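Table S4 entry, META domain-containing protein.
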Amino acid sequence: MKTIFISVLSVLCSLLLLNCNAANSNASQNTHQNSQVQREWMLIAFGSYSKADLIAKDAKINLTEKPENGKIRGTAFMGCNSMFFTSEFKNDGGVEISEIGSTLKACQDMKLEMDFSKAFRNMTKYSVKGHFLTLSDGDGNQMEFIAADWD
């Protein structure tokens, strides 16, 4: 009886240790994923807008907030209002953008802001290659960013 109890206890402890190791592995993958995107990004390619137009508007997103439960609170600026959102970058290359809002200033030219807001909420995939972040949807639309701290 004592031998069976020790055997069962050993198996349970082993399973517990394996489970903890898997949880730590997933947490470290998410941390690595977040560290790739957790920067300020300047928008350099979007729709029919030229790079010069985007630079003139100081178009950017900021993903530098500390992640909470795998999600990063971010901000965006397209020349007029400050926007805010929640993002979740997944290990499979998927991204979820939610809880989008903004300040309500009326500016003379808000076309970029309106186009960006409409397209941004539909982005479902991401990739980071070097200093570039690309967001895309399922219809072939993309947004390309460059890291603001890259020289």
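The beta strands are 40-46, 60-62, 72-77, 82-89, 95-102, 125-129, 132-136, 142-147.
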